[in-house]
Every structure is written in structure tokens, then in C-alpha cells.
Specification:
InterPro entries: F-box-like_dom_sf, F-box_AtFBL13-like, F-box_dom, F-box_SCFL_complex_component. With about 130 residues, this protein is α/β, with parallel strands linked by helices. Helix content is about 25%, strand content about 20%.
Length: about 130
Amino acid sequence: MGADPELHVAVGGGAEDRLSDLPDGILEHVLSFLPAEDAVRSSVLSWRWRGAWAHAPALNLSDERHLQGRFLSFARAVLARYGARDIPALDVVIGCKSNLGPGTPAWLHYAMERVVGSISVSVRCRDPWTG
């Protein structure tokens, strides 16, 4: 049996980077589904990805990965580095045990001034009886 010329298998890296060949709009759309932390981290994948997150049509911020008091700093930095004045959509998730502090209302007000599409702010609490 001969090898299929259309089948390319890469083991241990060295694979062709097809994601970087996507048009900007599609790459940015894909990044809009990720949590902001992961979208920002994608900048290290290749030169082509640097800053792509800052043009994503949606930002997803959550305090789940941040130590108390650090989420607001990260959220401010993300908004400050977003590539356009207007943010198409913003989704913010805050946990019940979050301690966002007194700067939260000012940050939310600033965020609301920049979002031109939809904005969602959710507080998620786990039921102690069901986990």
C-alpha cells in the first residue's frame, strides 16, 4: 500500500502552521472564544499572532484564575491594550468569593463606555450542596 500524498503527519513538532495562514478576521474570531488570559498568551505562538487578541470581536474576562485583588489589574490592562477604542462585546464573570475592591464600579463604568455591542456581567456561585 502506498502512502496517501495528501496525508501529512507530524510527530514531535515541526508541523506546518496552518492557523497562522488564516485571514486576520478569522484568527481574531477564533481568539474571541477564549478566556482573555489565553487569548493574550497566544501572542507568544508566532509573530503572526502578536496582538491578534487585541482585535478579537469579544473579550471574555473571568476572575477564576486570579488571586484576590489581581483580577482588576489584569482587566484594566486588557482594556488599555485592546487595539481599538470600541470593544464589540465584553463578557465578565465574577465568582462569589471574589474580592474585587472599591475600584470595581469605576472599572465597570469605564468598560461600559468602551463596549459598543453587548456586555454581560455574571456572578457565578456554586451551590454548597451540589458542588
